[in-house]
């Protein structure tokens, strides 16, 4: 999967997202188009799909119970990023810039983040003993996802910015009650 994504990102960079076809990505990755579609249902998915959610869940579940829910979420989100290599961070930065600049990818990312918000809602409800349809739990998860979106936009506009540092600062602002 990572090999296909690497070739897709390279082609998107070289010839543009809209000009790149699934067939070109498959050829570059030395797979058939049908194999491509076993891993990714659309061209957008090749940039949106990652393995972050299982890592987030595992890290969140390991957080000490004495931490506030936001501290546990913050630690879990940052631990996944801190484990990335320099090359993976560079790729994440390039993917983010592409996602934020291509309307189809932004839309697909919004859908993906809605799924992440539901995942967060379930994790938070389990940790706090609330129901997952509790408005406070959903609002909390939505605020965390909103912070992530704001950091994605910021880092796309400021490519030299450190995503992990910006996410940590933004989540700290949320924890402080968003004083302006």
UniProtKB/TrEMBL annotation:
<keyword id="KW-0805">Transcription regulation</keyword>
<keyword id="KW-0804">Transcription</keyword>
<feature type="domain" description="HTH tetR-type">
    <location>
        <begin position="1"/>
        <end position="58"/>
    </location>
</feature>
<dbReference type="GO" id="GO:0000976">
    <property type="term" value="F:transcription cis-regulatory region binding"/>
</dbReference>
<feature type="DNA-binding region" description="H-T-H motif">
    <location>
        <begin position="21"/>
        <end position="40"/>
    </location>
</feature>
<dbReference type="GO" id="GO:0003700">
    <property type="term" value="F:DNA-binding transcription factor activity"/>
</dbReference>
<dbReference type="InterPro" id="IPR050109">
    <property type="entry name" value="HTH-type_TetR-like_transc_reg"/>
</dbReference>
<dbReference type="Pfam" id="PF00440">
    <property type="entry name" value="TetR_N"/>
</dbReference>
<dbReference type="InterPro" id="IPR041347">
    <property type="entry name" value="MftR_C"/>
</dbReference>
<dbReference type="InterPro" id="IPR001647">
    <property type="entry name" value="HTH_TetR"/>
</dbReference>
<dbReference type="Pfam" id="PF17754">
    <property type="entry name" value="TetR_C_14"/>
</dbReference>
<protein>
    <submittedName>
        <fullName>TetR family transcriptional regulator</fullName>
    </submittedName>
</protein>
<dbReference type="InterPro" id="IPR009057">
    <property type="entry name" value="Homeodomain-like_sf"/>
</dbReference>
<keyword id="KW-0238">DNA-binding</keyword>
């Amino acid at each position: 999967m990572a090999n296909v994504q690497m070739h897709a990102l390279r082609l998107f960079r070289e010839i543009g997202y809209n000009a790149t076809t699934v067939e070109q990505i498959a050829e570059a990755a030395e797979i058939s188009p049908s194999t491509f579609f076993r891993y990714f249902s659309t061209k957008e998915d090749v940039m949106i799909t990652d393995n972050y959610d299982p890592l987030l869940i595992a890290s969140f579940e390991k957080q000490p119970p004495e931490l506030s829910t936001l501290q546990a979420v913050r630690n879990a989100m940052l631990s996944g990023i801190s484990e990335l290599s320099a090359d993976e961070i560079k790729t994440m930065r390039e993917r983010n810039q592409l996602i934020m600049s291509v309307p189809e990818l932004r839309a697909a990312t919004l859908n993906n983040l809605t799924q992440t918000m539901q995942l967060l809602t379930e994790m938070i409800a389990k940790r706090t003993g609330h129901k997952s349809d509790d408005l406070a739990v959903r609002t909390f998860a939505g605020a965390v996802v909103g912070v992530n979106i704001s950091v994605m936009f910021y880092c796309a506009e400021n490519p030299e910015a450190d995503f992990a540092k910006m996410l940590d600062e933004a989540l700290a602002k949320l924890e402080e009650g968003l004083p302006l």
